[in-house]
Design a protein that fits this description.
By secondary structure, the chain is mainly β. Helices cover 3% and strands 38% of the residues. The protein contains one helix and 25 strands. The radius of gyration is 25 Å and the shape is globular.
């Protein structure tokens, strides 16, 4: 779900809803009928080539909108991106009856009645991100403070998992595309690589740039650089475990020896498995031992964002700005909400 903002004072906001596997509904509020009205329906499942031979996708479609209401984007089938330009609608609507029997409108020149109309989208088109070298997309978000819509994409360069971090870690990357829906051009204007492999969500910052959430870190990225904040000790490198010697002819089974050896290092992170960004990040919040998995957010101001964790813990993050960039991030734990599970979307 996303909100398409009206581009002028004569436009109302519209609500965009996505459904599996690749469907989109654009809704608005009908002032006369006092109900929700469907302004358009979009269906992207008709082209089987978009599925790239797959039949099942673990993630459903996600819709995001430009902060200034210029366009919307739907991510589907991992690498397919549908772009929908916002329509320029006029707020002046002719009243054929030449009057206002209910006294709810204001007459304009020539007997015209001014009425707020909702934002809506035009004809969509689909971009295959795989052809641009962007595969396994995890999240997308539109950025603030750009003259044209800029879409930031979080994607995985190489597939990996925790047991393979010593061979392949920090496999997530960012790609910022400048979206021109008129000429259908999408050049890549900046990118960043080396994000922790468990990075799962992007949060657009109202002052520019974006926050990237991973299980153990919060990182900030913009065209001018990046910074980070460690939220638990699992992002920090530990010590190298002692070498395990196994006597195959001994009385103790090798599996038992390996289990006993691993039990000596329950929370130890091998230096070769720790994320590289943690070395230059702020470690002041590591003692909080937070787990940001599945965290949800809501902006309270341009520099303050509330984070709701899956444990029910509520955090307040303060961003210190300097020269248009986040210089420092501070986390303030708030009272835990007991018996509460994070909602799918927190508005």
């Amino acid at each position: 779900m996303a909100v398409l903002r009206g581009r002028s004072s004569s436009q109302k906001d519209a609500l965009l809803l996505t459904f599996r596997d690749a469907k989109l509904s654009v809704l608005d509020w009908d002032d006369n009928a006092h109900t929700i009205h469907t302004s358009s329906l979009h269906y992207f499942e008709g082209d089987p080539s978009l599925r790239m031979g797959r039949t099942v996708f673990p993630m459903g479609p996600k819709v995001v909108t430009d902060p200034q209401g210029r366009c919307a984007a739907v991510l589907m089938f991992h690498t397919q991106l549908a772009l929908l330009p916002a329509m320029e609608t006029e707020g002046l609507k002719l009243d054929l009856m030449m009057d206002d029997p209910y006294g709810e409108g204001e007459e304009g020149p020539g007997g015209a009645s001014t009425e707020l109309v909702s934002a809506t989208v035009g004809n969509s088109y689909v971009v295959n991100l795989a052809k641009m070298g962007i595969k396994q997309v995890r999240d997308i978000v539109f950025l603030h403070k750009y003259n044209e819509p800029v879409l930031l994409i979080l994607h995985e360069v190489e597939s990996t998992w925790p047991a393979r971090y010593r061979d392949a870690k920090d496999t997530m990357a960012l790609a910022a595309l400048s979206v021109n829906v008129v000429h259908r051009r999408h050049p890549r204007i900046w990118e960043a690589s080396g994000l922790p492999s468990d990075t799962f969500r992007l949060i657009s910052v109202p002052t520019g740039g974006a926050l990237a959430l991973s299980q153990n870190m919060v990182t900030y990225h913009t065209q001018g650089g990046s910074s980070g904040l460690v939220v638990n000790s699992h992002a920090l490198p530990g010590k190298v475990p002692e070498k395990l010697e196994i006597d195959v002819e001994g009385d103790v089974l090798p599996a038992q020896l390996a289990a006993e050896h691993a039990a000596k290092y329950p929370d130890n992170v091998h230096p070769e498995s720790a994320p590289a960004l943690a070395a230059t990040a702020d470690h002041s919040a590591a003692a909080l031992m937070l787990d940001l998995s599945a965290a949800r957010h809501v902006w309270l101001s341009k520099t303050s964002v509330a984070l709701l964790l899956k444990s029910g813990r509520l955090l307040l993050a303060h961003l210190t700005m300097e020269a248009g960039m986040v210089k420092q991030m501070r986390l303030q734990p708030l009272q835990k909400v007991t018996g509460f599970k994070p909602p799918t979307t927190w508005l």
